[in-house]
Each structure stands twice: as structure tokens, then as C-alpha cells.
Specification:
The complex is a heterodimer of chains A (about 290) and B (about 425).
Chain A (H helix, E strand, L loop, with lengths): L9 H32 L2 E2 L7 E2 L3 H9 L1 H33 L5 H9 L6 H12 L5 H6 L12 H26 L3 H9 L4 H12 L1 H17 L2 H7 L8 H9 L6 H30 L1
Antiparallel strand pairs in A: 1-2
Helix pairs in contact in A: 1-13, 2-13, 3-7, 3-10, 5-7, 5-11, 7-10, 8-9, 12-13
Chain B lengths: L8 H22 L14 E6 L4 H11 L6 E6 L2 H6 L1 H6 L5 E5 L2 H8 L7 H7 L5 H6 L10 E5 L2 E6 H7 L7 H13 L3 E4 L7 H23 L8 H14 L11 H9 L3 E7 L14 E4 L12 E3 L2 E6 L6 H12 L1 H10 L4 E2 L11 H12 L2 E3 L2 H4 L2 H17 L4 H15 L2
Parallel strand pairs in B: 1-2, 1-3, 6-7, 9-12
Antiparallel strand pairs in B: 3-10, 4-10, 4-11, 5-7, 5-8
Helix pairs in contact in B: 2-14, 10-11, 17-18
Classes of the chains: A mainly alpha (about 290), B alpha/beta (about 425).
Organism (chain A): Nonomuraea phyllanthi
Subcellular location (chain A): Cell membrane
Membrane topology (chain A): Multi-pass membrane protein
């Protein structure tokens, strides 16, 4: 093996340096640089103007022990992930399976379910306000209830997740639908001939062949859950029960507040949570390749 | 004409290259160079960074600067909230010469960071047009002036005269009378106090006035400055009083915007509303004459009704201003009563800061507002302008919202505010 490494010509080396070099510069400059800067800043107290003061782990202590929105944000992010993963995604799969059976008007259902996907989540946030508003919302008007859907911090996260799920279902459905169309009908036929029921055919034969699609959907679901921001920001700036880590980062860093060190600490927490999922996913992926 | 040689496409392009392009470039450049006003004053172009993104304030500023003859004005308007949120980066980057901002602590904070230009010399000329209260609000912690007040608006308790006459309600003078009135309204099937805090800041107005009535202006400002403890019994007293009034507040406040609450007042569904004079915007033109107010009633006789919130808007010069002379000349113009009268005429929710302003054209509401402010010994700027911006936005907004949703949990809330305050004011 060692002898073979000498085979690179000068030209090869140049190409390698340029090819790899550009990628490394971009990678370091746009990904690793900012990431490490965030980690570094999270150990400082800085208002964006004055001198940068080193404070060690103080920001982490402050946010975990004395910043009430932090824990509700962590809880809401995890709830968001659980809701999209356990409710919205399976429901999207369910819709896709139903639509794949060529029902009458399936095109209409398909369009209706897919429609919300073309809306940005911020727009979904505005629509949610028209539905849930206490004083003029459709929901209270139709049902005659007087519930403060968006203002009551014990229920608002749930109704907002339903609104976010409304969009997510369509997204997941269309991906699964494409996957289902690609499943070889011969497989289903064979299963039927072997005497498998509908349920068995789906779980034992069709679902396993959807594996690549499942991976994509899983990744999309995790990304959607962690980057959720616009919908709660549109509704009430992500306060009062709708806190999310992404909102707290923005609130502390971007706003007039300029608690850059403190906001970076929250960003690092979000990074750690994301890394947990990314590492699990990648290690699964590499394990298979071997 | 018929002797003119035909112009080929190629020649046309060459011609364009020879004359057209420089001309076009000159054309681009000329929008930045003096074009409108005469440059006889020789002060060149003054740029203004403006947060007046709403139609009326925008028009108001444009009209005011038309009178500037010593140079040309270029206004860069940015969305109001965006401007506010980016102020740090804006002032450190390449700010305009003059920028719109707020008086009090909010101004001092940036002056202290060295991001504003000292305009004490401008104040030596315009000082006579302002009362001491306005001068104090324009003065930095170093005793120099950094701000020129333009307009302001008071906070009070607003109501509809017609509804009150019909039901026979009278403006209360004390907290007991206020509570009794609220009880009566409730019995009459009206929600006594309109309330909304979805945006997080309107509840600050209620807190401010309760604190100033209970503990006085000096304690309030000192509390805002981070010098008092939030677990102090005096602060607890404020929240206790507020909790006692909570049953008369419009429920579900955290899901409602101030605009919706303002409309409920206009529709006579609610009896009164603690808000700034801008609540008038939610009233149809025809009903504005029916809108009246009284100052929040006395709680502690030691302080009576001597303080109110009346946030002042105005102008500052950035530390990095390129045209300081032009900017100072512009501030002198904006400080003039005639400029401020343009604003008060266009926007009935504001009052002119200059004492020389002509109040004869004021609407009835504006006249009452000016009278209210002139009677106040102390003028506060509103919670988010009287304290550090990070404390107001990341601590007070969530804390007041949590109080509104669970008014009984006062002690734990105050402990939490105090801990977070200590983290920010260190």
C-alpha cells in the first residue's frame, strides 16, 4: 500500500489541493468557523459593542437555573419533535397509503393535502391566528367555545403544533406517495398469493421496501422540528408558552437586547441536541455500509 | 434633417458607449448630490436613518425636512421594529448622520457606549424651547445632551364619553373609587378594563403606572436602573394591587393584541383602557371626539398623581456621522415648534415636545393630553425605554406575561426576576 501512495503526479497534487482546498476553506469558513465562534462566545459576556469578557460556564448556569423560558423551550422543541415524528409523520404515511389505492377523487384529496406545503410556516402562523383567535377566530365562532387557544400557555403549543402538523402531513404524504408508486406491484401480488392480508402485506412487504424513503422522511422530520421558528414567531414572537430554542437565540442575539454570549450558549445547546440526532443517524448509516 | 446620415446599429451602440454611459452614470450619481434644495448653505447632504415606516409618521418627517434649505436631505426609512432591533449593528456599522430614537435610558445607553455625538452646543440654542423635564430626558449620564425631542404621547385611562354619560360613570380619583367603578361596570355587563398583552409590552404600561402611583417616580426609575431589589415588599405591593384588579381586566389577554382591545373599547364592549394616546388610531374618525381619558387614580397619597408615562420620540446624531455640521443644523430645524406642529397636525395621537408649539390647532384630545403632561411633576419614558433593552425584552416581557396568566404566583415570579436582573445588571 505504501508504495502506491507515491503515484500522485505534480498535476494530481495541484488538482487535489485546489479541489480539496476550496471545499475545506468553504467548510471551515462557513460551518466550522461560525460553530466554534459560537462555542467560544458562549463562554463570554458581550453586548456586541463593548469589550468581550470571559465568564466561563456562567451563561450555562444562568440559563439552566435562572432563565425560565429556557426549559419551556427545550420541552417545546422535544414536544415538537415527538408530535411531528409520532403523529404527523405516521398520519402522512396513512394518507399516502389511502391515496395509493386509487380512490375516487384521489387527485382532489392529494391536492388538498398537499396545498399547505406550498405555504411558508409564517403564513401558516397567520392562518392559525385567524382560526384560533379568542375574539374573532373561526374555531371559537363555530363551536361557541370561549377558549383562549393562543394566549393560554398550557394549550397554545398543542394547537400550534396541529397547525404545523397540517403542513407537515402533506409534505410527508407526497414523499411516501412517490415511494409507494415505485414499489413493484409484483411484490404485493406475490404476498397476496401467499395468503397475506392487507395489513401483513403492508407491514411485512411494502413498508420494508420503503426503507430509503423512511430515512429521508425521518431526516426531514428531525430538521423541521429543530428549525421550527417562523410559525411561533408569527403568532406571538415565541413567548408565553410558545418558546423554542431557535426563538430564544434570535431574541437574545438579534434583537435590541444583544446578549450575544448568553444567546450563543442557547445556540450551543441547540447544536448539541442536533448533534445527538446527526451522530445517531450517521453511525446507523455507516454501520450499514460496512 | 433629411441630410442626416442613417444611423447604423453599430454606430448607435458606439454612441451610447461614448456619451450614454457616462451620462447614465452621472444620472445615477446625481440622486445623491444636492438636487432638490439649494446648496447655498453649503452644508451638503445630510442623511437620516428613520424608523418612521408607518404612513403618517413617514409623511410627517418628509414634510418637516422640506424646510431645510442649507443642504439636501436623504431619508432612509426602515421598518419600525427592524430599525429598533438592529440599532446596535446599525450604529456600529455605517449609520446615517441623524437617526430617529427615544429619550431617557434608551438614549443614555447608546450615548454611554460612545455611539452618539454630543449636541450640547445645539441645546444652548434650542434649550429655551423645552421644559426642564424634556432637557433631563435628553441628557446623558455624563451631563451632556445627545437627543432632540420631537413629539411624545401620554399614557392614561381612556374611555368613551357617550357610554359613561349613558351609564352615569364618573372618572375615579382614588384606587377605591376605581375598583368600585369597575365593580359597577361588571354588574352592568361591561368588561371594566380592556387588556391585551400578546405583544408583551402593553402590560408594562399598567405595571409602570401602578408602581409610580404606589412607590413614586424615584423608586420606579431606580428599580428600572437595576438599583432596587425586585423582591422588595414595595414591588410585591404593586403586584398585589394589580392582582386585586385582575378580575376586572378583560380575560384571555395573552391572545389579544392592543388593537383588538382598542376596538373592544370603541365598540363599547369594554369600559376603559390603560394605554397610550395612540389608542385613538383604533377609533373610526367619527368617533374620535367621543374618546376621553383620565389619569390613573391615586393609590398612595404621598405621590398622588404626580407621575405619568409619556414616551418622547426624537432625533440623535450618530458618532460616525459624516456631516456633523449639517446634522446639527437639521436638528435645530426639527427642534422648532413649526416642525413639530406639522407632526401633531398629521398624527392626532402625538403632542409637540417644544413648549413654543402652537396648541390652538390641537384636537380636544391633544389639548387634554398636553394639559395632563403639564400637570405631571415627573415624566417616565415607559418600561422598555427606562431600563436596559435586554432586561426589558428577555426578562420583563416573559415575566409580566407569566404574571398575567398566573396572577397568584407573585413571590416565585419576583425571585426569578431578581435573579435574572442580577445576571444582566452586573
Amino acid at each position: 500500500m505504501a508504495a502506491k501512495t507515491r503515484r500522485y503526479s505534480a498535476r494530481d497534487v495541484t488538482v487535489l489541493v485546489i479541489g480539496l482546498g476550496v471545499a475545506i476553506v468553504v467548510n471551515v469558513g462557513l460551518i466550522w468557523g461560525p460553530t466554534l465562534a459560537s462555542v467560544g462566545l458562549s463562554a463570554t459576556g458581550w453586548n456586541g459593542i463593548g469589550p468581550i469578557e470571559w465568564v466561563g460556564a456562567r451563561n450555562y448556569h444562568d440559563l439552566a437555573a435562572e432563565y425560565p423560558p429556557f426549559w419551556s423551550a427545550v420541552r417545546n422543541n422535544l414536544l415538537w419533535l415527538a408530535f411531528l415524528g409520532l403523529v404527523a409523520t405516521p398520519f402522512g404515511l396513512f394518507c399516502a397509503v389511502l391515496l395509493d389505492r386509487r380512490l375516487r377523487l384521489s387527485r382532489v384529496y392529494q391536492s388538498a393535502l398537499y396545498m399547505p406545503v406550498v405555504l411558508s410556516l409564517a403564513v401558516v402562523g397567520f392562518i392559525a391566528q385567524l382560526v384560533y383567535s379568542h375574539d374573532y377566530g373561526v374555531l371559537n365562532a363555530v363551536t361557541g367555545l370561549g377558549v383562549d387557544w393562543l394566549g393560554d400557555s398550557s394549550i397554545n403549543i398543542w394547537v400550534v403544533m396541529v397547525a404545523a402538523g397540517w403542513r407537515h402531513v402533506g409534505y410527508v404524504m407526497i414523499i411516501y406517495l412517490a415511494g409507494l408508486k415505485a414499489v413493484d406491484p409484483a411484490l404485493k401480488e406475490a404476498a397476496a398469493i401467499d395468503g397475506a392480508g392487507e395489513r401483513q402485506t403492508f407491514f411485512r412487504v411494502v413498508f420494508p421496501t420503503l426503507r430509503p424513503v423512511n430515512v429521508i422522511v425521518l431526516v426531514i422530520t428531525v430538521i423541521e422540528a429543530l428549525r421550527a421558528f417562523d410559525i411561533v414567531y408569527a403568532i406571538n414572537k415565541g413567548r408565553n408558552g410558545l418558546e423554542l430554542l431557535s426563538v430564544l437565540v434570535t431574541e437574545n442575539i438579534v434583537g435590541e437586547a444583544s446578549r450575544i454570549g448568553f444567546g450563543s450558549a442557547i445556540a450551543v445547546i441547540l447544536l448539541v441536541i442536533s448533534l445527538g440526532f446527526i451522530v445517531t443517524y450517521l453511525s446507523q448509516l455507516f454501520k450499514e455500509e460496512r | 434633417m433629411d441630410r442626416r446620415p442613417p444611423i447604423s446599429r453599430r454606430n448607435l451602440l458606439l454612441g451610447a458607449a461614448a456619451f450614454g454611459v457616462p451620462a447614465a452614470l452621472a444620472g445615477c450619481g446625481s440622486s445623491d448630490t444636492p438636487s432638490g434644495g439649494t446648496s447655498s448653505g453649503g452644508l451638503g447632504t445630510v442623511t437620516i436613518g428613520s424608523n418612521a415606516s408607518d404612513e403618517i409618521p413617514k409623511k410627517s418627517l418628509e414634510t418637516q425636512v422640506k424646510a431645510f434649505t442649507q443642504g439636501t436631505i436623504k431619508i432612509n426609512t426602515v421598518d419600525h421594529n427592524t430599525f429598533q432591533e438592529n440599532i446596535n449593528r446599525y450604529l456600529r456599522g455605517t449609520p446615517d448622520d441623524v437617526f430617529t430614537w427615544f429619550a431617557g435610558y434608551r438614549m443614555q445607553f447608546f450615548a454611554q457606549q460612545g455611539l452618539a455625538t454630543d449636541i450640547s452646543d445645539v441645546w444652548r440654542e434650542i434649550g429655551g424651547d423645552y421644559t426642564q423635564a424634556f432637557k433631563d430626558q435628553s441628557t446623558g449620564t455624563d451631563g451632556k445632551q445627545y437627543f432632540v425631542p420631537s413629539t411624545y404621547y401620554p399614557w392614561a385611562v381612556f374611555y368613551r364619553k357617550s357610554l359613561w354619560e349613558e351609564k352615569g360613570y364618573e372618572p375615579p380619583a382614588t384606587l377605591d373609587e376605581f375598583t368600585a367603578l369597575a365593580r359597577r361596570m361588571k354588574a352592568d355587563g361591561i368588561v371594566p378594563i380592556a387588556f391585551a398583552d400578546k405583544d408583551g409590552w402593553p402590560a408594562m404600561g399598567t405595571f409602570d403606572i401602578l408602581n409610580m402611583r404606589t412607590n413614586g417616580y424615584d423608586f420606579h426609575i431606580s428599580l428600572m436602573g437595576g438599583k432596587e431589589s425586585w423582591t422588595d415588599p414595595r414591588v410585591k405591593q404593586v403586584f398585589d394591587t394589580w392582582r386585586g384588579l385582575m378580575e376586572y381586566h378583560q380575560p384571555a389577554a395573552l391572545g389579544r393584541t392592543w388593537q383588538e382591545a382598542g376596538q373592544s373599547l370603541a365598540q363599547k364592549k369594554t369600559g376603559m383602557y390603560v394605554l397610550g394616546m395612540f389608542v385613538a388610531q383604533q377609533f373610526p374618525e367619527a368617533d374620535r371626539g367621543d374618546l376621553d381619558f383620565f389619569t390613573f387614580p391615586e393609590i398612595n397619597p404621598a405621590y398622588g398623581t404626580d407621575s405619568i408615562d409619556a414616551p418622547i420620540d426624537g432625533y440623535m446624531i450618530s458618532a460616525k456621522a459624516k456631516n456633523v455640521d449639517g446634522a446639527k443644523a437639521l436638528l435645530k430645524l426639527l427642534a422648532q415648534a413649526s416642525s413639530q406642529n406639522i407632526a401633531t397636525e398629521l398624527d392626532p395621537g402625538t403632542l409637540a415636545a417644544s413648549s413654543k408649539a402652537d396648541t390652538s390647532d390641537y384636537s380636544a384630545l391633544q389639548k387634554r393630553g398636553a394639559e395632563l403632561v403639564s400637570k405631571a411633576t415627573h415624566i417616565a419614558q415607559f418600561l422598555d425605554r427606562d431600563t436596559r433593552p435586554d432586561f426589558a425584552s428577555t426578562v420583563m416581557i416573559p415575566s409580566l406575561q407569566s404574571f398575567v396568566s398566573e396572577p397568584a404566583e407573585i413571590d416565585s415570579l419576583l425571585v426569578s426576576i431578581e435573579k435574572q436582573k442580577a445576571n444582566i445588571f452586573r
